[in-house]
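QA checklist item 7 of 12: single-chain prediction sanity check.
[x] sequence parsed
[x] length recorded as 619
[x] structure emitted
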Amino acid sequence: MNSDEIRSKYIAHFVSKGHKEISAARLLAENDPTLLFVNSGMFPLVPYLLGEKHPSGNRLVNYQRSFRTDDIEEVGDKRHTTFFEMLGNWSLGDYFKKDQLNWWYEFIVEELKLDPARIYQSVFAGNDLVSRDEESISVLQEIYKKYGVSDGVGPATVGDGEKGPGEEIDFNKSRIFPYLDKNWWKRGDAVGELGGPDSETFYDTGKSHDPKFGKYCHVNCSCGRFIEIGNSVFMQYRKTVDGWEELTQKNVDFGGGLERLTMVCNQAPNLFKTDVFSSYVEFIESKSGIKYDDIPSSYEIITDHIRAVTFLIGDGGIPSNKDQGYFIRRLIRRGLVHLNKVGVNFDVFIDLSRLVIKKMSAVYPQLTKNEETIVSLISEEVQKFSRTLDKGVKYFNDIKPVNNSISGQDAFNLLTTYGFPIELTREMAKDKGWNIDEKEFAEKIIQHKDLSRQGADQKFKSGLADTAEATIKLHTATHMLHQALRQVLGEHVQQKGSNITPERLRFDFSHPQKMTELEIKQVENIVNENIVKKLPVYCEETSPEDAKNHGAIGLFDKKYGEKVTVYSIGATLNSKEKPYSREICTGPHVKNTEELVKFKIIKEEACSSGIRRIKAILV
């Protein structure tokens, strides 16, 4: 049974139980400052788990593309991926433990035909505030009796869940295992947050226990014998000052990994031996002449990272040096380093992205829709890094560590000169048994930032070279250009830099692709139409919050003072009229747009990955 069939069967199974299928969220988290990426199907549903009514009702099901940054350096161990698909179903105050656990077992035993004798479950062990989850234990024992397998409760783990109960377990008799730290879910520590016990499902792969992970094996052991395939979270509590109080609306939040279910359904030795990855693995093998089994970690890193990158860019991500874009760039560069290890041309990374799009577009049509952007941005990153990779690897290989430690200066040089993220340097050093002088590296980064800041302070505010009349006019034109770009291209457009002289303006902005001639002309026309309107330009002081509420464009993720200066073209803050543009800015500007006479774009070009640049003049 391949991954597409399992995905379809899961949705159909829960639809048959009265669930409504809902659409998935984009990978790039929205409206949640605590999260860069959507890492499960639950996070987009938080408002409804907190009590808001969902338009599709109180029984929901979907499959959600997910990305977890924590696992980047774990990829390559046959078990971890950064990108995965999460199968999810939810009860918003409707059914609870009995229905959830019974329906889940119906799916994995009766639909997927998994052997119930190889399926185990963990539950919450209980503490001074919340008692052991006897309800789940009782339900699970009924389920195991139904399928004719042992239903014994094994020894509890109340210490470190990674170490287990610290005794030999007879897995023929014990099937349900209480854990303290592994089976309590909470969204956060603040008063009012949701929480509750969860019950995880494990499948016994039949592998032998590796003693390096502890003397005794247990279902949460890291040796790889048992693999988690699903987790039912029972959100029945809310955090209070004194602990946890039970909710009147009890929710179920279930998540199961599609890739892992595919692996166990097909008795595959690991995730990368399933149809999820096989076409990518075979393609690399055909190009390299080296088999997956000869260098599995590199194959796993390449294939996982190209899936992640393709989906992240397909959902609007842009490679860069910060925030979400940093992780995309890091994945691409790590993938290319490992392509280099298997002796494959870097164009294969681009070919692999097209393969991902071809394989997954029936389920995720946005990949086909955004194929040109995806391939273009990956190609730019590949070209950029390929120019320095060989030199960077040579530099690394020439390093002479002292006491098995690389200097912070060398790590800094690899970052700034060759584009090697520090995590990549750490990984390469670890392969050789080396460390990095992290303290010296941190000091070099601070020095670098201080120098950059001093350089920035020497420039005139707002990117102006001076305060000549012509420069001031072009500064106002820059604001008008910014607004016109957002009208024509979309509100994803954000200023990424500017440089203004008396002769011309240069404006950098976020946009994933080259502008068409029509788009350039439309932008130019909008600016000139508003010049002709002779719009007044207003300068006002207000709070950052008030500026934001009035639609001002600004970097609201940075710290402003108590007051900011807002320049509005066409209407004041208190006016009922809508302004043409409104931005937080320190000035200076003209008094009226008629002073600009006529605006003309003379060039539109790429500035860096995902960033375009416009040069324009006033005539």
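[x] summary fact logged: The chain has three domains: 3-271, 399-458, 461-618.
[ ] second reviewer sign-off
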